[in-house]
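Aim 2 progress update. The chain analyzed this quarter is reproduced below.
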Amino acid sequence: MASELILPGDDNKSRCAWCGKDPLYVKYHDSQWGRPVSENRRLFEKICLEGFQSGLSWITILRKRENFRAAFDNFEVEKVCKYRAARVEKLLGNAGIIRHRGKIEATINNAKMAREMIAEHGSLGAFFWKFEPKPRKYDAKRAITDESKEMSKQLKKLGWKFVGPTTCYSFMQALGIVNDHHPDCFRYAEVEVLRKRFRRPI
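Predicted structure tokens:
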């Protein structure tokens, strides 16, 4: 079973099999996925892109990520908060992104929610990192946890959209709130070191 979850690379490094051989996906796996993050813009970008991923694959979003950044002013919260109906229509005409009205409008709504969260908690990281779970055994099938359910519940209560528990768990995995690299993946130990050194926002 473990062999199905690990893929040897041409560089003789064993990786989580989900990234396959696509160079863009491999680069994302190696340099970003699971690396702890606390910066507001990156957290906001990631949770928005996870929302756009809903019903799609992450590689689809990853291939369009630079287009998304250009379309949404690099996911600067204050800028996205100011988008009006005309901007929504412009985004719906942008073939470089996912042209889904609900997800586009959710991104603008969530920017407003993020602004309020930063004002209340001091940063987005101070809110999101409070859902960090205790270390647990690796499970490749895990897609929802009690923590991701609670994060989703609290976000929805605050007015956020497209933040279901599966989306929240993918967000937690990507931003290092959990280390879900396979234990035999070469990045697992490296991410563990980064997480130990990482200063949790408060």
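The chain is about 55% helix and 5% strand. The radius of gyration is 17 Å. These observations will guide the mutagenesis experiments scheduled for the next reporting period.
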